[in-house]
Amino acid sequence: MSATPRGQQQPADDRVPPSAGHVVLVGASLAALHAAETLRQKGFAGRLTLVGAEPHPPYDRPPLSKRVLAGRLSAENTGLPQSIELDAEWRLGVAAVALDTKGKTVTLADGDVLGFDKLLIATGTRARTWPQPAEAALDGVVTIRTRDDARDLRARLAAGPRRVLVIGAGFVGSETASVCRELGLAVTVVERGAAPLAGALGGPAGTAAGRLHRHHGVDLRTSTSVLALEGDSAGRVCRARLSDGDVLEVDVVVAALGAIRNVEWLDGSGLAVDHRGVRCDAFCRAIHDDGRIDDDVLVAGDVACWPHPLFGDEPLAVEHWDNAVRQARVAATTMLHGPVLAHTALPTFWSNQFGVNIKVVGVPSRADQVAVVQGSVRDACFVATYGRAGRLIGALAVNTPRAVDSYAAMINDRAGFPLALNAADAPDPIRILDA
Fold first, then answer.
1. What is the DSSP letter of 202?
2. Which of 125, 238, 360, 412 is at a distance of 20 to 30 A from 12, taking alpha carbons?
3. Degrees (nearest 5) of the Cα angle 326, 65, 435?
């Protein structure tokens, strides 16, 4: 008999999955697709409905700010494959606008009301737009989140703009800047913080990212804000005024300001919802304002906020591909079998920018200390570890992707920080820095 895998509880019995009933999945996304496939794979034979605000079937978002912008992949070719026949009803191009948990109904924007036996909330996030509406409406001021966004921005980049302005140096902003340089375009990145990626990876890694930007010809302005965007007589963006006093002539402005969780449609539902998303337990069951767990309403993907046993001080909200897939499978299992499989997978994500592969595991953003334990930052080939209160909570691998699994195992085993690895390529000495 094999041991129960990490993060999994032994089922109490061998209950047969229900063969009837109606499951509604709101958010025709990566998470919803994997939840639907898991339901069918586990024997659910009832009615299945997927509701999506976008008109497109589920598609892959990570390539949008990488291969699609660079012209190596068309936006139309980002669709996600279906591993099995879902036999589902698709309600695409119509958003959910209200949830009645007592009556077990979802109201759609076209007025239809869907009753459900089980519901998955997987409405994800949307791009945060430029906060000045008149400036955001200028032709050439764009965001990148959807397939349509990527198609539009790709066309603008292919037209050869004089200069692209990227506002925000997180992962999407940095990847966009990288593509601009790959295409030979002049690009300025404006970041209010002290360095790119510092919010996600801490100050020292951000400093290294900043050197990478500048080495590849990015005009990087840190500790700087955009005060105003200006348009010409035809309503096209043409100018940006910066807090450092500069005025830039620009043809395209990419607002890479982070994401907003799509939770407004849940107002009045009684669920515990805030800017971090919809609260749920480790089995993906939604939590009500009064603390009650709802066995019939599940949550997965970017919109979920849940407790992780390794990071118990504050619920996690993770906007990454791997988490959406794993959480969706847990949610589907809970629908069919109850709370037998907990979502305890470590957050893991990756990025490619300026020819560098970046992989991250754990939650570096919560660290108070960081140390490079393998390789060289100067050579852009290293592993940095992140600690909080004397425990390892994250790792960053730059151009060393195979190292991630080992550090993930150490995080799961609650290894102490700093680590004593005695690696052959360890810096001498290893410096412990404030994160």
1. -
2. 412
3. 70
CA dihedral 172→178→179→185, nearest 10 degrees, is: 120
* DSSP summary character for residue 69: H
> What six digits make up the tokens of 175?
């990847």
Span 26-39, pLDDT tens digits: 999 999 999 999 99
Whether 377 contacts 389, CB under 8 Å: no
Residue 366 in tokens? 């919560």
Q: CB of 396 within 8 A of CB of 205?
A: yes
User: pLDDT digit string (tens) for 55-67?
Assistant: 999 999 999 999 9
- As given in the structure block, the two tokens for residue 384 are 């940095």
196 contacts 174 by C-beta, under 8 angstroms: yes
Contacts of 57 (CB under 8 A, 6+ apart): 28, 79, 80, 90, 92
Q: For residue range 284-323, what is the model confidence (pLDDT) as tens digits? A: 999 999 999 999 999 999 999 999 999 877 899 999 999 9
This prediction's pTM: 0.92
Helix (H) / strand (E) element for 3: namely none
Q: By the 8 A CB rule, do 138 and 231 touch?
A: yes
Average pLDDT score, the chain = 93
DSSP letters of 106-157? EEETTS-EEE-SEEEE---EEEPPPSSHHHHTSBTEE--SSHHHHHHHHHHH
pLDDT digits (tens, 9 = 90+) for 355-397: 999 999 999 999 999 999 999 988 889 999 999 999 999 999 9
